[in-house]
């Protein structure tokens, strides 16, 4: 019986499917009709699938952005303009609409100090790191044999944890024991000692504000170089060589080639790294913690090097959400204004 069924299946099913081209008829007519009548006419034209298809693909990302970006922004606005913290009674919070949180933040001496530190860091480190990155990128572009190897070396700090690098810098500038009679010196003072320079108190207790800023500037500039070098080097390699060939034929000096050809053609990328540098500088926080610890200053100088982000992080744990939100919005407004100024200047000075 089983053999009979197998024979019938072979002759009337498989054989019928192949011999009479039912499979071809099915694919050619019926499937084609389904595709044309249902998919193209109903799904695409009636439901306009092509228009909302992209939104369906983007839906997971949009949901995540709405939850983790849009909602926090809206909640920050709500807290900044409504929540009022009563300093006399920390457990008492009133909800009133007004600018009292902004007034409190602007009158706070700690916020003013953090604002000054942030401004100082930005307006020193961003121009300095941009100029150094441009010079290094030009030098790297001229070195062909070891270019890839040197690019990797310069890019390593960018992928290294900033707290870990800050701790290394703290060890480099540290002094163990009494400053006048130290037990051991960090790398910086050991290097200075070779030239007969007495140990300098860079970051230890009793160090001055200027020396603290010096260490911080060195670290931030060094940490900002990799990204800027990579961007500028990529832009350098995309410049048409005919400009340099024409300058070589005319006998143009190298410094003039640099100022008249390289810098103008790199101006869009220079504007980009300057804008991103200011945005990153205004958000500076982890580098200071890595070098000076959570107190953001040497022993005895608590929060001397506090930044605007540090101020926000510091008032959140004690429940001052309204003040923290107001400070965050002030920081956003400053970054926005500085970015708009940079964009305006770059439009006047940028050559495309």
What would you note in describing this structure?
There is one protein chain. With 352 residues, this protein is mostly helical. It contains 14 helices and four strands. The strands form two sheets. It has a two-stranded antiparallel ribbon. It has a two-stranded antiparallel ribbon with strand order 3-4. A hairpin with a 4-residue loop joins strand 3 and strand 4 (182-185). Helix 4 (100-107) packs across helix 14 (321-349) and helix 7 packs parallel to helix 12. The chain is globular.
Could you give a quick summary of the protein structure above?
With 352 residues, the chain is mainly α. It is built from 14 helices and four strands.
């Amino acid at each position: 019986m089983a053999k009979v069924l197998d024979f019938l299946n072979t002759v009337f099913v498989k054989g019928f499917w192949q011999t009479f081209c039912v499979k071809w008829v099915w694919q050619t007519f019926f499937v084609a009709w389904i595709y044309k009548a249902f998919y193209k006419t109903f799904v695409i034209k009636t439901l306009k699938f092509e228009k909302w298809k992209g939104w369906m693909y983007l839906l997971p990302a949009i949901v995540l952005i709405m939850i983790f970006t849009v909602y926090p922004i809206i909640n920050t606005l709500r807290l900044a303009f409504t929540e009022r913290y009563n300093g006399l009674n920390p457990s008492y919070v009133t909800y009133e609409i007004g600018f009292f949180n902004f007034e409190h933040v602007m009158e706070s001496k700690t916020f003013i100090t953090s604002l000054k530190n942030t401004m100082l860091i930005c307006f020193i480190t961003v121009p300095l790191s941009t100029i150094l990155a441009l010079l290094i990128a030009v030098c790297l572009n001229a070195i062909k044999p070891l270019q890839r190897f040197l690019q990797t070396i310069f890019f390593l700090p960018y992928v290294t944890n900033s707290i870990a690098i800050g701790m290394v810098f703290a060890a480099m500038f540290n002094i163990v024991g009494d400053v006048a009679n130290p037990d051991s010196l960090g790398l910086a003072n050991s290097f200075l000692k070779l030239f007969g320079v007495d140990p300098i108190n860079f970051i230890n207790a009793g160090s001055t504000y200027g020396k603290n800023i010096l260490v911080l500037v060195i670290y931030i500039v060094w940490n900002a170089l990799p990204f800027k070098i990579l961007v500028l080097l990529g832009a350098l390699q995309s410049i048409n060589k005919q400009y340099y060939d024409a300058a070589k034929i005319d006998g143009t000096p190298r410094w003039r080639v640099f100022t008249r050809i390289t810098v103008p053609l790199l101006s869009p990328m220079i504007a980009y790294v300057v804008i991103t540098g200011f945005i990153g500088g205004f958000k500076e926080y982890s580098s200071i913690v890595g070098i000076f610890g959570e107190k953001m200053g040497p022993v005895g100088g608590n929060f001397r090097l506090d930044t605007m982000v540090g101020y926000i992080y510091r008032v959140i744990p004690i429940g001052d959400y309204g003040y923290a939100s107001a400070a965050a919005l002030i920081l956003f407004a400053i970054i926005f204004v500085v970015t708009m100024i940079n964009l305006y200047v770059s439009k006047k000075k940028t050559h495309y």
